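I am writing to request your help with a piece of structural work I have in hand. Here, with my thanks, is the record as I have it:
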Amino acid sequence: MSAEVRDAEESEVDELATVWYQAWRDGHESVVPAELTRRRTRERFRDRLKAALAKVRVVGPVGAPVGFSMLKGDELNQLFVSARARGSGVAAALIADAEARLAASGVETAWLTCAIGNNRAARFYEKCGWHRSGTVVEELDTPEGIMRLEAWRYEKHLRQVRNDQ
């Protein structure tokens, strides 16, 4: 499978929402409160993708993406790959692309959060050079209001600070 990363297209929002919904449930359902799982619907993921489409990058043929990443400031905010594309290099291509975009925008230390207990994702981040820096309490926006969830925080230094002044 080609792991070429490209901008998401508006016509792909429904398929991306399905990828996100299925991959999120696979990685999170057993490690987060049932109430959060209930609130994380495919329609909610679709709304979030549509709102952030300009910051979404994907891998896969147009109309059939198999993974995506989303940035938010200096955070790799989302990274999800369909089960059928795992182990194919899609996630590695997406994380490398996100790191390059963050570095190009001037970010020196990028960060992301990972649900505590999502060990597959944690191993992947560590393999890519990210380091667990501690835990944080995330405030997750849901249609029913904010939910707080403790998560692992990972960081990666992307570039050296210039001291030539």
Summary: Residues 13-28 form the longest helix (16 residues). The two ends are 46 Å apart (CA to CA). The beta strands are 5-7, 56-59, 67-72, 75-81, 109-115, 131-142, 145-157. Residues 5-157 form a domain with the Aminopeptidase fold (CATH 3.40.630.30).
